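Thanks for the sequence, V.! I ran Carbohydrate sulfotransferase right away. Repeating your input here for the record:
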Amino acid sequence: MKTTYVPISHEPKRFWSALSSRSFKMRKPRVNRMVLAMCLGSFVMVIFYFQSNLKPATQGGDQARGLGKSGRSPLQTLYDTDPMELSPLQVMHQGRRELLEEACRSYTRKRRVLIPEDLKHVIVDDQHGLLYCYVPKVACTNWKRVLMVLTGGAGPDRHEPLQIPAHEAHVPGRLRTLSEYSTAEINQRLRGYLKFLFVREPFERLVSAYRNKFTRSYNTAFHKRYGTKIVRRERPDARPEALERGDDVSFGEFVRYLVDPATQREEPFNEHWERVHSLCHPCLIHYDVVGKYETLEEDATYVLKLAGADGEVRFPASGKNTRTTGELAASYFKDISPVYQRKLYNLYRMDFLLFNYTMPDYLRVH
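Predicted structure:
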């Protein structure tokens, strides 16, 4: 079967097409055989994923799974509502989708395709027709707990998310990710399942990651893995115990480590401070719901209702105070020089733009 080759663009298209290894071989007859063998051996899969409009395919064989109580998939429930009858909540989420699409068109120019590595953060719930891209430090532990309950991964005796210990929610293999499926199965789910993610003000998320990974005594693995490296690179005349333990990294040292070009040359960012657009690829995958940490419980309830699962599980209440988290972030940035504030903003700029977050007032970069 001949594969259609379509160049990637962020202008509206007719969905996507997959590039198979066979078509790759036909398309590149002169490629060195050794290189080709290496590519095939590493399971290269490329998915072209185009969005023609705000209503993805909601009919046909792709809906064999993930039907809600009403007999409709979450996508049908989301998009088959009369535009004149949308609730304020539905209008808000439609606005978020449109803002994200417009930002992608405005700020992304490079042509790009998805590979399996890009899909490792996308969790699959086949029973309810859901794809969730998890972002660390944006309630992902509770979302994993919820999905474990919904998919049966929590075990027969656990019906409440908070019955699942936090560390257990992150054990590999408890939830399937989209990268584990075949090309055809991936394409089917991208086209037919409700895709959602949750985001957070970038610097508040960054401060949360720093506090959790570098100021908690129990996170010795992070201290050894990253703390020692940061101390060695960013602290002149560091004491031997600091070089060995890496458990007293300051926020300023962490910031300098992040903006140092050598850091990403050495290895990718850890997922806890990696940018959302690099984890979830929102300009390549059309997310149907963009939830926000600032409206977490309302948005989580909305997703569960779309999936017909609101009667099965309740999203755990967070007890957070978004005003407090903003003030906390400001307190950490007050000792960061304007030069490094600007560098850090530039590093996370795309997350600010894509998800409609404004530059914090406490930054001194104007």
